[in-house]
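Protein entry
_____________
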Amino acid sequence: MKTTTLKSASANYEVTILKSADETAGRYSFLKVNLYAGAGNELHYHTTFSEHFEVVSGVLSVQVGKEIKYLYPGQSLTVGKRLAHRFFNETKEATVFHCTITPARNFEKALRIGYGLANDGLMNEKGIPKNFLHGVILFHLSESYLHGLPLWFQSFVFGGLTRVARWLKVDESLEKYSV
């Protein structure tokens, strides 16, 4: 098993790929996440994969819909497809958890590109790509959707913008990060 740790000075968590999609024939990706104090992400959902969280140390807060669940070491939670969710750390200590993405899809590629952009200073302080079309490609790869906007609208708008980004070869310019 070959592990890869993705780090960035500007990211609020680091990810280690413990078992890659290549190793599991795409069935899943198995990640270790070190979520720093006060860190987290925004409410979102995925249409093609589920996420399973299992806490190793610290306390992980996971919001699913309007409900917030607090997970402690040894506890786990699976968030299915199309469920709005976010994870965050409300404590003053780092939280370490495992995350299994099933099936793996292109999630690892999106992670690698996101961390590559951050390390090259191409993300803002909130972890959003400074180049809008980079963000479009990342959303497309991670199959992430914003909570509160209709899926048909996001699919239409981001689908069209993804085609523009590909036509402009923006996706090719990001390939260097995905190795």
